[in-house]
């Protein structure tokens, strides 16, 4: 796995590089701003980019913009975005073009090495990884008159874990229920959110996006 890191904090940038190299992962470049990050993507053609949301010069959304541009330049690039805080609009923007090979984690998650590496590998393998704290904070911000209000407490738990990118087996293990029960809850979620099966849409992704988009409009 070839990785490019874009992080303006030198301690975190080098710490990430040391951690990943200790796991026998190939960190091909570490960069501190959007321009050098995009140059490194062009030069190395990495499999994964780890990108800070807030980067120079304005420390607002340069990282998100650079990540989107990197995926345009290198289709199929997996991107794991790091943020110090829950950035609701950024989480929605990140997923707006589709959730495959994308992740959004709070920086504090890096210190939980096993969870961080699990998210990194999940994204690199084509999945999605959204920080559970991001999901939890967004779930608490929904207004009562949303479609998500139709969901039971257990269905909301299942949707939250789906948003983190977990599959049915992992959800069952987390909730101490059977896979059959998880499957039943997911079918109910799809029904309550009016998500009919189609050949063009992944209903798991659509359910998460519906939630994020709805929350962004109503907060």
UniProtKB/TrEMBL annotation:
Domain HTH luxR-type stretches: 144-211
Highest taxon in the source lineage: Bacteria
Domain Response regulatory: 2-122
GO molecular function list: DNA binding
Keyword Secreted: no
Gene Ontology BP annotations: phosphorelay signal transduction system; regulation of DNA-templated transcription
SUPFAM superfamilies, A to Z: C-terminal effector domain of the bipartite response regulators, CheY-like
InterPro entries noted in UniProt: CheY-like_superfamily, NreC/VraR/RcsB-like_REC, Sig_transdc_resp-reg_C-effctor, Sig_transdc_resp-reg_receiver, Tscrpt_reg_LuxR_C, WalR-like
4-aspartylphosphate PTM positions: 52
Key words, A-Z: DNA-binding, Phosphoprotein, Transcription, Transcription regulation
PROSITE patterns, alphabetized: HTH_LUXR_2, RESPONSE_REGULATORY
Family matches, as Gene3D superfamilies: 3.40.50.2300
Protein name stated in the entry: DNA-binding response regulator
């Amino acid at each position: 796995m070839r990785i490019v890191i874009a992080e303006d904090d030198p301690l975190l940038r080098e710490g990430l590089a040391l951690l990943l190299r200790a796991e026998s992962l190939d960190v091909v470049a570490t960069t501190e701003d959007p321009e050098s990050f995009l140059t490194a993507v062009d030069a190395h053609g990495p499999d994964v980019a780890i990108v800070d949301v807030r980067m120079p010069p304005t420390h607002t959304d340069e990282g998100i913009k650079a990540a989107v541009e990197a995926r345009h330049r290198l289709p199929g690039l997996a991107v794991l975005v790091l943020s110090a805080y829950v950035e609701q609009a950024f989480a929605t923007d990140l997923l707006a073009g589709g959730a495959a090979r994308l992740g959004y984690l709070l920086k504090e998650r890096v210190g939980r090495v096993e969870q961080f590496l699990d998210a990194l590998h999940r994204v690199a393998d084509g999945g999605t990884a959204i920080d559970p704290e991001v999901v939890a904070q967004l779930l608490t911000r929904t207004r009562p008159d949303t479609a998500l209000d139709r969901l039971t407490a257990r269905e909301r738990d299942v949707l939250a874990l789906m948003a983190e990118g977990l599959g049915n087996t992992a959800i069952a293990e987390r909730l101490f229920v059977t896979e059959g029960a998880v499957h039943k809850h997911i079918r109910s979620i799809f029904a309550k959110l009016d998500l009919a099966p189609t050949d063009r849409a992944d209903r798991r992704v659509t359910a998460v996006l519906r939630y994020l988009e709805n929350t962004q409009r109503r907060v």
